[in-house]
């Protein structure tokens, strides 16, 4: 057996060992991973996978928006801008109970026709999460624009 053919099994064994030592992800790590996946899905224009992270009983903007209205907002934004981008700032996650958590963060959201955005805004997000069948779902979210003087 050549040295080259031994490298792949050795690398796989090392990776398996690292995963075993790492243990399960914390609630914070799990929710951050879902938020980052949602960001990637919007940037790729994939609204269905994005919406899969939102619970059926979702409530947003102080109970003035439901899941269907979020879906409509996403469609409108994806149709308006050829390219949506997000830059998330540190995400703070707090476990609020068994299978529930909140996450707070800011995000710079930009949109435009090509590579250069024509508009952008920083938003402050307050979100609520619930674990359903092992998956974290967004159950509530409120977001407000952050004044420029607070960003700088």
Explain what the structure shows.
The chain is of the alpha+beta class. It has one domain (24-151): Nuclear Transport Factor 2, Chain: A. Helix content is 39%, strand content 39%. Strands 1, 2, 3, 4, 5, 6 and 7 form a seven-stranded mixed β-sheet that branches. Strand 1 and strand 2 form a beta hairpin. The chain is globular, with a radius of gyration of 19 Å.
* Quaternary structure state of the chains depicted: single chain
In the residues, how many domains can be counted?
1
State the order of secondary-structure elements, H for helix, E for strand. Answer: HHHEEHEEEEEH
Proportion of residues in extended strands: 35-45%
Largest sheet: 7 strands, mixed
Number of helical elements: 5
Total beta-strand segments: 7
Gross CATH architecture? Roll
Unreliable residue stretches: 1-21
Summary keywords:
single chain; 152 residues; alpha+beta; Nuclear Transport Factor 2, Chain: A; seven-stranded mixed sheet; 5 helices; 7 strands; 39% helix; globular; disordered N terminus
Topology:
Layout: H1 3-22, H2 27-43, H3 47-51, E1 54-60, E2 65-66, H4 67-80, E3 83-88, E4 92-97, E5 100-112, E6 119-132, E7 135-145, H5 148-151
Parallel strand pairs: 1-7
Antiparallel strand pairs: 1-2, 3-5, 4-5, 5-6, 6-7
Summarize the structure.
The chain has 152 residues and is an alpha+beta fold. It contains five helices and seven strands; from the N terminus they run αααββαβββββα.
């Amino acid at each position: 057996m050549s040295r080259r053919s031994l490298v792949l099994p050795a690398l796989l064994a090392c990776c398996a060992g690292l995963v075993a030592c790492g243990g399960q992800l914390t609630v914070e790590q799990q929710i951050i991973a879902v938020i980052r996946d949602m960001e990637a899905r919007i940037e790729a224009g994939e609204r269905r996978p994005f919406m899969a992270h939102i619970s059926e009983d979702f409530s947003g903007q102080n109970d003035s928006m439901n899941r269907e209205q979020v879906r409509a907002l996403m469609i409108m934004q994806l149709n308006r801008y050829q390219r949506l981008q997000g830059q998330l700032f540190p995400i703070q996650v707090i476990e609020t109970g068994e299978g529930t958590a909140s996450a707070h963060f800011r995000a710079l959201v930009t949109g435009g026709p090509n590579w250069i955005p024509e508009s952008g805004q920083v938003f402050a997000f307050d979100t609520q999460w619930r674990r359903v069948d092992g998956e974290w779902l967004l159950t509530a979210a409120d977001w407000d624009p952050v004044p420029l003087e607070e960003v700088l």
